[in-house]
Design brief:
rod-shaped
């Protein structure tokens, strides 16, 4: 091989080696920056994950309490419904008694009127004969 070809090949190998070293150094800097960034990210994310877990526990607790309260409200609502049914039955019974009382009063009034009528009728008969 001619010496000038060897010189060109050596220059190419040296140029490629210099470029490769530059690329490797740049990759090293990127790796170092990435490592420091991941360290910062880990420091920031860890408390955030802890807070998120605590919030989720609080949400679960509130959900359980809300379910218990809903069951209590349901029981109270059923009880109020039962009481309302009882009150309705009492009101119906009182209305029936009131209606019966009105009928009894009407019958008593008619009887009293008939008694007065019969007494006057007898007085009228006794006065004519006597």
């Amino acid at each position: 091989m001619s010496p000038w070809v060897v010189a060109v090949l050596v220059a190419c190998v040296v140029g490629l080696t210099v470029a490769l070293v530059a690329v490797l150094l740049a990759l090293r800097r990127v790796a170092l920056r990435t490592e420091s960034l991941l360290g910062i990210l880990e420091q920031e994310v860890r408390p955030l994950v802890t807070e998120t877990r605590a919030l989720m526990d609080d949400v679960r607790t509130f959900t359980r309490e809300a379910n218990r309260e809903m069951k209590r409200v349901e029981a109270v609502t059923e009880r109020v419904h039962d009481v309302a049914d009882g009150v309705f039955r009492i009101v119906t019974a009182v209305a029936g008694i009131t209606r019966a009382g009105q009928l009894v009063s009407l019958a008593v009034g008619i009887r009293k009127g008939l008694d007065v009528f019969v007494q006057r009728l007898r007085r009228g008969q006794g006065g004519q004969h006597g």
